Structures are given as C-alpha cells and as structure tokens.
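B., you asked whether I could sanity-check this one before it goes into the benchmark set. Here's the sequence:
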Amino acid sequence: MNQIDLNLLRTFDALMQERSVTKAAELLGRTQSATSHSLSRLRHIFKDELFSRDSGVMEPTPRAKELAAVLTRALSDIRQVVERHLNFEPASTFRNFRIGLSDSSAVTILPSLIQNFSAQAPNATLNVLHTREAEVLDLLKSKQIECAVLGNFSLKSDQITVVQLSTHKMVCAGWKGNGLLDDFTQERYLSSPHLQISADGKADGVADIVLRGLGLKRKVVATIPHYLVAPWIIKDTPLITVFGDNFIFAVSEETETKIVPAPFPLPDVRVSMIYERGLEADAGHAWLRSLIIATTEVQRALKEAAYGRLNISGGRQSQQ
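And here's what the prediction gave me:
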C-alpha cells in the first residue's frame, strides 16, 4: 500500500475508460510520458501487464478487470464525498460527467444538451455512452454512467430513481411521393413494406406487438438500429416506418418525409431519466439532472415547431 497513491489509481481508472494512454493523459490533464510512467509503476505493483495491445486498442487483462470492479466504484465514492462537501460551481468545475442514451434519445436531446452543458460548464466534459435498457443497471452500479435517458424504461430496482421527462405519440412516416399516405388506412398500412427501427436489430417493435394482439401482422423488409438514417432510407421508396413524434423535429426537409398518424392505436413513448438514489445528494449530479430536464423543455418547443413545418395536425395534443 505504501507504493500506491491516489493519482496512480486515477490513472488506472482513466486507462480503463479510454483504453489509450494518449486519451487517458488528456482526461487527467497530464502528459503522455507521465501517464506511461504511471502505467509502468502500476504494472510493477500489481505484477501484471494490466493492458495489452489488440488491433491497436489497449485491452484490459483479467486482473485489470478484477481490479476495476472495485477501484472504479471506490474512486467514484471518494469523488462524490469530496465534491458533496464542496460548493459545486458549474462554471469552474473540471468534473467529467457520464450519461447513457438510447439512439432515439441521443438524436432528440443531445444537440441541445451539449450546447447548454458547454455554455454552463466550459471546463467540464460530458461522455455519452450508447445504452440499452438491459445494460442500465449494471452501468449505473459500476459507475460507467451517472444517469441514463431512455424510452419506455420498465426495469425495477430499489437502488434507482426513475423520473419521467416527457410523453410522445407514435406516428408513421414515409416518402411524400408515396400515394398510399394520402388516405392512410389500416389496410394500406398492412399492405405496405416496413422499415423497423430496433436498438438490437432484431426485436419486435411496438407496432408488431399491438398488431399481434389484433391477430394481424405487417411485412418488415429491413431492420436498422439508428433513427437518424431512417428518413433517408425510406426516401423514393414505398417503405413505411414508425417512431415517436419526439423525433420529428430532427427530420430534414431534404428527406421529403411525410408524417401521418397511425391508423390504429399505438401506446405512447415515455422518456425517462434513470439514476442511482445514492446520487441525489450530489450537487453536481443535481445540476446535471436539472440540465437534462431543461433540455427536455426545449425539445417540446422544437417538436411543436416541427408539427407546423411538416404540416402535421395534432402537435399540441401530443405535448405532456
């Protein structure tokens, strides 16, 4: 223990996060040479390589993973205790914040969130991890993220707090040249080829589940994991897709996308913020949560404007 100081452990934590000596040095505000020297000391102390090169990327060894399971959480706990007892000032903090977002959440809130974050905390950094629901609890527990923003989050745990941020209607989208959209009935919906947007590329969508309950089935031609490319894929095609109307303000006019109401009832999309209850007293985390909530308010205004720009009825009815 006499050979180990806190900065060595911080170096190890940064290397686990970045998997690069150069990036770890930038994160720590140190030189690459100093960070390499610290890594050599860590290897000597723990009698293990800790990281090995694989296709140009530093991969942790089994012993490094074992150490990280304890040290990452311990460092996070130390950081929280220290910052909790200091006056948190966004304008002067150098803190690194980590949040998890699904693809749809990233498209809709990330531009405004980063803009507001950098304006209020110019010296801080924000790391964003692509996150799926099944990963959230483990990522929060291991401190790889401090909170997550996801749609239709359903997992239960006594260790987390779930705050509903907004509710959005499900809508259908297709190329404006698709004549079937002019009078979009259930029959036309079922006879159309569909593009499904799914985080894992294979799970049934909300529409499939609802249709199955009605004894019906749609024809899915392809499944993609990203929302942002969907309008470009359906352009000049008869393809139809379904997504929450929180996404419509991000739809470019160049895609010639037409948005229409679903011809049968679909459940709303509930967007929630999820975090560990133990972080509620953390002043920095409270600031981050308030920033996310404020960004959600901006998103509502952008969605309202998009309803007018795309000439869609029912915009105000969808705001909650």
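One thing to flag: DSSP finds ten helices and twelve strands in the chain. Otherwise nothing jumped out at me.
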